[in-house]
Amino acid sequence: MRQKNRLNARRNKKAEREAAEQAKREAAEQAKREAAEKDKVSNQQDDMTKNAQAEKARREQEAAELKRKAEEEARRKLEEEARRVAEEARRMAEENKWTDNAEPTEDSSDYHVTTSQHARQAEDESDREVEGGRGRGRNAKAARPKKGNKHAESKADREEARAAVRGGKGGKRKGSSLQQGFQKPAQAVNRDVVIGETITVGELANKMAVKGSQVIKAMMKLGAMATINQVIDQETAQLVAEEMGHKVILRRENELEEAVMSDRDTGAAAEPRAPVVTIMGHVDHGKTSLLDYIRSTKVASGEAGGITQHIGAYHVETENGMITFLDTPGHAAFTSMRARGAQATDIVVLVVAADDGVMPQTIEAIQHAKAAQVPVVVAVNKIDKPEADPDRVKNELSQYGILPEEWGGESQFVHVSAKAGTGIDELLDAILLQAEVLELKAVRKGMASGAVIESFLDKGRGPVATVLVREGTLHKGDIVLCGFEYGRVRAMRNELGQEVLEAGPSIPVEILGLSGVPAAGDEVTVVRDEKKAREVALYRQGKFREVKLARQQKSKLENMFANMTEGEVHEVNIVLKADVQGSVEAISDSLLKLSTDEVKVKIIGSGVGGITETDATLAAASNAILVGFNVRADASARKVIEAESLDLRYYSVIYNLIDEVKAAMSGMLSPELKQQIIGLAEVRDVFKSPKFGAIAGCMVTEGVVKRHNPIRVLRDNVVIYEGELESLRRFKDDVNEVRNGMECGIGVKNYNDVRTGDVIEVFEIIEIQRTIA
């Protein structure tokens, strides 16, 4: 029993120990679990703290970035505002620079070292650069304008600051020495240069704001020589301006004139019009008497000395139609008037006295008619006189190219007597027949246009112009543009002094109301707007001087070659005067023999005696050269020569005259192109090259083979290919030429059929200046 109790006691102790151990183990595990849970919570708290700190740092970084961007935007806006203010200041200074120069003040603090406009601008630019450098040296807080700071936005304050920077510590620098200069702009100023159709070198230099010498140097680099006052064309001026780095704006000078002329109602349908006839001939051959008989009035009795004083224009009604006559004076003092009459007419009636024959002024009239390309009707006058010889007149006129129809020519010959009235009807029929051949037509309805026949200043009526209407109908009250003048037609009178309200084609009238006296030959045009007509007239007056200067280069003998290259001159026109008839004939024959198919000599007019105003007028109308052989020009001719800038040349040796004209014509001939063989190479062997194809191994037998010259390939002395070389080598080196007796390798471009025994011929093209034998 006792043993059983011991066993039970042992069992109980053992169970107690096991329970105690179990309790300890559970307590240890509980403590472990609590420690793990505590560590977990601590770790979670640490992670949350770190995340919060990172989020806070990120938000702070984003805020700083936004702040930086805002500061940059504000700084950019400030810089743009500063640039805008500076540009506005420069613009206002440019607008006020003339006022500043015209009204300088003694107390002006904006002092410039120089008075040059462009130098002052450069100095202002330098001052702005200095101010900008100083402003950038200050801190950002001081440099940044605050809100409400009116000083930063005041333009007056900025101008005072610029003046203070210029003045420095001394304030005004009026009394300081002028030794300090200004910095040149770092970049050249490029300008917009407006160029008209013509401009002088000096004006171009002013528009580009450079010295005239710089423009002349630029033109010399382009191969053109010019002086400061020389007129140059638009194309040359454009090349010079673009060469100097400026932008060119081309302006057509006649834009306003074209706009005015385009705004005209010209009508549509053309109708037949009356012919305009000019009566020409030698003095006292009966021109005015002939016209007087036709008009059945006594005009000749009212003229001083029986000589017509002005170009008279009259229209007469005949049974077969109306004819307008221009009575050109026949006296030598009115030769320039005769030239105008010939250019304004449709038909020329050449009056030749049957008892006197062809006289000097008859020849002049023929020359003017031919120069104007006007058909001629010959009126053989004074046929009723016993000594009349019409056959003699025909023979003499045939020597000057006026052939009657019965001799195969184109001129009608009519025998008339202005005194007895014989043959007048036949003459009028001949004129109307010639007009039918010409098919003269004009638009009758619409705004009129015409030409001034004569003009003068009347004390009571003011400027008076005789106008020949060519197209349209001229009405009283129309606004007319007439050369350099303009005005409204206040009154119109016909040749009888009667007031008329309108004038159609081929009708001559006197008009009143112009602003001044126009020149004979000026175009008359009816326009709509009087203000625009005034602007065009004023522009033409200003343009006149430029045109006169540019015309000086037109007919110089030295410029003939330049004009020929431009296609303007195909023949040399010459007006020849000599001391004797033999010299005239010899020189004329010699000059005409110089003519070739490319360049021809044309004798526009010739005669014996000094050079007269008639000769000068003819030369001006035909763009001809005046040649005097042992003669000189009179005073009136010299005035025309100087006014028209004609080329006048005197000679006393006929060979010098011929040689100079020959030299000028030789310069017009295009050079002759000739091929000259410079080398021959014989093909000794042919090699194949993957790069060049067939390579010919050659020996140079004559001359020199050059790399860049054209070649021919000959086989049995027959040309089988013509081209150029692909390569030229001597041993392994590329060379430009190989001389006689040396070997070389030749590759022919685009040709691989070179064979042994072929000959490669090298040639060059040379220009040979042709001369007239």
Tell the overall outline: elongated
CATH topology of the largest domain: Rossmann fold
Q: Which value, in Å, is the CA radius of gyration?
A: 49 Å
CATH architecture of the largest domain: 3-Layer(aba) Sandwich
Alpha-beta classification? alpha+beta
Residue runs with pLDDT of under 50 for 5 or more positions: 98-116, 137-156, 163-182, 297-311, 330-342
> Would you tell me the overall average pLDDT?
77
Terminal CA distance reads 177 Å
CATH H level, superfamily name of the largest domain: P-loop containing nucleotide triphosphate hydrolases
Work out the oligomeric state of the chains in this entry: single chain
Strand sequence of the main sheet, in spatial order?
Answer: 7-8-6-9-10-11
Explain this structure to me?
The chain has 773 residues and is an alpha+beta fold. The protein has six domains: 112-168, no CATH class; 192-250, Arc Repressor Mutant, subunit A; 274-439, P-loop containing nucleotide triphosphate hydrolases (Rossmann fold, 3-Layer(aba) Sandwich), CATH 3.40.50.300; 449-551, Elongation Factor Tu (Ef-tu), domain 3, CATH 2.40.30; 557-668, Rossmann fold (3-Layer(aba) Sandwich), CATH 3.40.50; 672-768, Translation factors (Elongation Factor Tu (Ef-tu), domain 3), CATH 2.40.30.
Describe what is shown at a glance.
By secondary structure, the protein is an alpha+beta fold. Helix content is 40%, strand content 26%. It has six domains: 112-168, no CATH class; 192-250, Arc Repressor Mutant, subunit A (Orthogonal Bundle), CATH 1.10.10; 274-439, 3-Layer(aba) Sandwich (Rossmann fold), CATH 3.40.50; 449-551, Translation factors (Elongation Factor Tu (Ef-tu), domain 3, Beta Barrel); 557-668, Translation initiation factor IF- 2, domain 3 (Rossmann fold), CATH 3.40.50; 672-768, Elongation Factor Tu (Ef-tu), domain 3 (Beta Barrel), CATH 2.40.30.
